[in-house]
Amino acid sequence: MKFLRCAALVLAAGCTFAAEAPKPPGKAAIASAHHLATDAGFEVLAQGGNAFDAAIAVTAALAVVESSSSGIGGGGFWLLHRAGDGKQVMIDGREVAPAAVDAKAYLDAGGKLDRDKSVNGALAGGIPGEPAALVHLAKHYGRLPLKQSLALAIRLAQRTGLTLVGFARESQQVVYTHPERLA
Questions:
Q1: Which of 74, 123, 140, 167 is the most exposed place for a label (fewest CB within 10 A)?
Q2: DSSP string covering 83-111, please?
């Protein structure tokens, strides 16, 4: 009997939602992991920016509000389509090894790849690719100056103090999981 009551309630709720017609998104639709990042994209569009400027604004804002999973200390990919001429491009903004590192440094004594060297220790460090990707995106595809596309993310960082609480929690977890790294 409880199941039937729940089913009737779900059906009634579904009917209520079905009666409301969805509103079209208009000319722009932005989706991100955080509403403040989405707002940054819409702000840039309202200032005359294009979709590429909005992508920069969203990416930068995510670096502030979702710092443990996104940010300028890492990298990313941007798949782009320019409607005006149909150009499609993929920007690879992944991290890269420092230029002075020899690929042989990641090999074991037998000459085989030692994956641990690429994820643990000094050789695991990479040069973040995201900042260069944002500059490239603004220079080649954006309509606004990079400074303008980054403005809301800068304001968010100033307002929040860029506390990185989530990142601090994540870092503690790594330290506890790998106590040998404390030495």
A1: 140
A2: TTTTEEEEEE---B--TT--GGGGB-TTS
Q: How many residues make up the chain in this entry?
A: 183
**pLDDT tens for each residue of 91-121:** 999 888 888 888 899 999 999 999 998 888 8
Cβ proximity of 93 and 130 under 8 Å:
yes
Cα 28 from Cα 51, distance rounded (Å): 8
d(CA 128, CA 137): 15
DSSP state of 107: B
Cα(177)–Cα(59) distance, rounded to whole angstroms? 30
Compute how many other C-beta atoms are within 10 angstroms of the C-beta atom of residue 93: 21
pTM above 0.70, yes or no: no
- Tell me, what's the pLDDT at 137? 93
The enclosing H or E element of 106 equals none
Token pair belonging to 182: 């404390």
Q: Tell me the C-alpha to C-alpha distance, in Å, between residue 110 and each of 39, 114, 142.
A: 53, 10, 48
CB environment 125-158: b (16+ within 10 A), e (fewer): ebebbbbebbeebbeebbebebebbbbbbeebbe
Q: Backbone phi, then psi, for 79, in 5-degree steps?
A: -100, 120
pLDDT per residue over 128-154, tens digit each?
889 999 999 999 999 999 999 999 999
